[in-house]
Write a structure and sequence with these properties.
Layout: H1 30-37, E1 50-51, E2 56-57, H2 71-76, H3 88-93, H4 108-135, H5 138-149, H6 154-163, H7 203-208, H8 227-230, H9 235-240, H10 242-245, E3 252-253, H11 273-286, H12 296-304, H13 313-326, H14 342-357, H15 370-397, H16 401-417, H17 430-453, H18 475-478, E4 482-484, E5 492-493, H19 496-518, H20 527-542, H21 556-573, H22 591-613, H23 622-635, H24 646-664, H25 668-680, H26 683-692, H27 697-700, H28 709-712, H29 726-734, H30 739-748, H31 760-768
Antiparallel strand pairs: 1-2, 3-4, 4-5
Helix pairs in contact: 4-5, 4-6, 11-13, 13-14, 13-15, 14-15, 15-16, 15-17, 17-19, 19-20, 19-21, 20-21, 21-22, 22-24, 23-24, 23-25, 24-25, 24-26, 25-30
């Protein structure tokens, strides 16, 4: 029977086997062909294997040709497939597979050309380094040679040379001479440019504004080289110029203990150690040098070591609270009324701990372990005294100094309990001795400052028995605050010891003054006594150490020492204006001249502060100088209408109001000063202020339209009313007029933040309560 199935020519092909045992083959689809082509050669059956279970050997698949074989295949003349990183032949033979080409598509000829080009470039690099070694100064050539000896790559060395990374910086300082620009008028006012103004011959002025206002100075009077002269100086000298060329806020504190702190071991408020370390850092950077109440080195060492000797939970929480005011990245840091503010949470914890520590009783002498317990109790008392002073500062920033002063009174009482102001017995360890003496002088300086400014008799009639050591001879006693500026590896001192010693000496003089002036408030001090204190203050100024002299001062706290001196002179000499007195050392100089000179110097210092550092960073006492000078400007505004320097005086008012506005971002009391002084200003000056200073109208609003002022920010302050002269301030205080009453009266009034809408009589009543 014949088959009815049609046959094809392929069916008639004979492969040596019966056709009935073979499967008919069909053309492969495109997908299957692509899949087959992509199969790696290593999956091909070996010659000895059977094909499709038939027992016959499959034909050998030919290797795919490659543009460049590996070195091993070229050496043994094998057919390399070019697979990377290892070809199939080297993998089968287990030999090392290396290619001279960098890509499968690169031929050996192309690889040779590439290597030739690289050799030319390398030769050019070495030639350039050789040229640098031959042509550069010996100091730079030595540095390059040392880098070569240390194994640096040639291209890296050449890149540093060409782009001025490290080597060129030895001869050229990068452009970091940033300074702030004055609002409204860009130049220093002409009336400040007096030949006898020592602050215009200072290095900070030379670096900040000498190019804009050129003052001819005899060459022999220049003790220090100018910035341009320093450009060719060694690197160490250039690093010393950083404070004169860069804002203080760009620096960081350098202390190995800061990075090893675990603040969460000392507080229950937060567990974010990174955040709290930054807060503590900012406290030391911005506030510690001015309001110093404890020894930094002992505090950080014990805090890092979890040792409650010079550190306590109370002290850490107080430091964290005031550090929150200093931390610029913390939103709402000035909201003292906000319970969600983390600074207020640290304050609440510190207050709770203070109430506990202040009531810890003295150990009984009947206790067998009395000596050790008494030693521990004294250490706890010492840190409690230190924390109490910090709490007073915090209340001052919140506008509640009436409450904060109670902590200082209690601190003095506790200091007497542990005989802090007496000489330390010889058997006491060196660190405890230093901490006690250091804290005693910090407490004395603080109570003297507050007694003078609040017109109160001092809490201490005499300074501590132990005299202060010379910071130049015993710097370890004081400790040092080291900082580093961007782009420089060197650390620089803030001269903490010289600053603290100068402030202690200053307030020792003023403590004597307060004792005579405010113990009997209705008795006027005789002229010869006032002149005697004036001469003592002038002697203090002449004996300042070199870093604090008018020639060298630069850091914010250095400038404020001189601001404080001139502010005191303004208040001290104001009641004596018009009296017949002349300086024996300067026969042509009267008390009126000295008073006017102090005002000129204060304005110069504030302008230099702004040019070099700006007003944005937290500064706990800068507000006093800004507000005092601005009140003088406001009070004499009408007399300036016909003055040739009218616009210069207005520019100073705008600058000072900008500073008050910037500080209002940091703490509460500055907000009140801003509204108070904006209310005293003329409306045209307020309008000009809004043009040049980014300030919201609500911040200047007074009266019922001021948003939630009374509910949120209650002022409990005994700070004297803004006035010029101690007698005027004392007279205001005797009538119950102080800063808090002025704020209350302005808040109750209308006026919308601009005196121009009121009469001169209403302005006078606002300034006098």
């Amino acid at each position: 029977m014949s088959s009815s199935r049609s046959t094809s020519p392929f069916d008639k092909l004979s492969y040596g086997t019966s056709t009935s045992s073979l499967r008919r083959l069909l053309p492969a689809s495109n997908d299957e062909a692509a899949s087959e082509a992509s199969v790696n050669l290593e999956t091909s059956p070996t010659p000895g294997s059977s094909a499709a279970g038939t027992g016959q050997a499959a034909p050998r698949r030919r290797r795919q040709a490659t543009t460049a074989a590996c070195r091993a295949c070229r050496k043994r003349k094998s057919k390399c497939d070019g697979a990377r990183p290892t070809c199939s032949v080297c993998r089968d033979r287990k030999t090392k597979c290396e290619f001279d080409t960098i890509a499968a598509t690169e031929t050996h000829t192309q690889a040779l050309k590439r290597k030739y080009t690289e050799l030319l470039q390398q030769k050019s690099t070495f030639e350039q380094i050789y040229e640098v070694l031959r042509s550069r100064p010996e100091k730079e050539a030595e540095e390059i040679f040392q880098r070569i000896r240390r194994g640096a790559e040639a291209s890296s060395i050449l890149r540093h040379v060409n782009y001025g990374d490290v080597l060129v910086q030895m001869a050229l300082v990068p452009e970091t001479r940033f300074r702030y620009e004055f609002p409204y008028l860009p130049d220093m006012p002409i009336y400040l440019q007096r030949h006898d103004n020592p602050y215009l011959d200072s290095e900070v002025f030379d670096c900040a504004l000498r190019g804009a206002v050129e003052q001819p100075q005899p060459q022999q009077q220049r003790a220090l080289p100018s910035v341009n002269d320093m450009l060719g100086s060694p690197r160490d000298a250039l690093d010393q110029r950083d404070p004169y060329l860069k804002p203080y806020s760009s620096a960081i504190v350098v202390d190995p203990w800061l990075d090893s702190l675990t603040p969460s071991n000392w507080t229950l408020v937060s567990s974010d150690d990174n955040f709290m370390r930054q807060v503590i850092h900012d406290y030391f950077l911005y506030d510690y040098d001015w309001f110093t109440f404890f020894h930094k080195d002992y505090f950080l060492q014990d805090m890092a070591s979890d040792r409650p000797r010079h550190c306590s939970r109370l002290l850490v929480n107080a430091v964290l609270c005031i550090g929150c005011y200093c931390h610029r990245k913390l939103p709402g840091r000035s909201e003292s009324w906000n319970p969600q503010n983390i600074g207020n949470q640290f304050l609440a914890e510190a207050k709770r701990l203070f109430e506990v520590e202040a009531e810890v009783p003295r150990p009984s002498m009947l206790d067998p372990e009395w000596q050790q317990k008494y030693h521990d109790w004294e250490c706890r008392r010492l840190t409690t005294v230190q924390a109490a002073l910090l709490l007073n500062v915090i209340y001052n920033l919140n506008g509640s100094d009436r409450l904060g002063w109670r902590y200082t009174i209690r601190a003095v009482e506790m200091a007497h309990e542990i005989r802090l102001f007496q000489a330390v017995p010889s058997h006491v360890s060196s660190d405890i001795r230093c901490a006690r003496e250091f804290t005693a002088w910090c407490l004395f300086t603080w109570q003297s400052l507050n007694s003078y400014h609040y017109l109160k008799p001092p809490l201490m009639a005499r300074p501590p028995e132990t005299s202060l050591p010379d910071p130049s001879e015993n710097p370890q006693w004081w400790g040092e605050l080291w900082i580093r500026y961007p782009q420089t590896p060197a650390r620089l001192p803030t001269h903490h010891g010289h600053l603290a010693k100068a402030r202690a000496d200053f307030w020792t003089i003023m403590n004597d003054f307060s004792l005579l002036s405010f113990s009997q408030p209705h008795v006027k001090m005789p002229l010869d006594q006032v002149v005697g204190f004036y001469n003592r203050l002038r002697g203090w100024l002449r004996n300042l150490p070199e870093p604090l002299t008018p020639k060298r001062l630069v850091l914010p706290h250095h400038l404020k020492v001189h601001m404080h001196y001139n502010c005191v002179l303004i208040d001290l000499l104001k009641p004596l204006l018009g009296l017949n007195w002349s300086d024996t050392t300067q026969p042509n100089k009267t008390l009126d001249d000295a008073h006017h000179e102090a005002a000129i110097h204060l304005e110069t210092l504030l302008r230099l502060y702004y040019l070099r550092h700006g007003f944005e960073a937290f500064d706990g006492f800068l507000l006093h100088f800004l507000g005092s000078l601005n009140f003088i400007k406001i009070n004499t505004r009408e007399a300036q209408d016909n003055s040739l320097f009218l616009e210069s005086h207005r520019s100073t008012m705008l600058l000072l109001m900008k500073g008050i506005r910037d500080q209002s971002q940091c703490h509460t009391v500055a907000k009140m000063v801003l509204r108070l002084q904006a209310h005293l200003m003329r409306s045209d000056d307020v309008a000009l202020l809004k043009r040049f200073v980014d300030i919201e109208t609500a911040r200047l609003a007074c009266g019922p339209e001021s948003p939630r002022l009374v509910e949120e920010e209650v002022i409990l302050s005994d700070w004297p009313a803004y006035e010029i002269g101690l007698e005027a301030k004392a007279e205001q205080k005797s009538r119950g007029v102080d800063f808090a009453s002025m704020v209350s009266s302005v808040t109750a009034e209308g006026g919308g933040g601009g005196y121009g809408e009121s009469t001169s009589g209403s302005r006078s009543s606002a300034s006098s309560g």
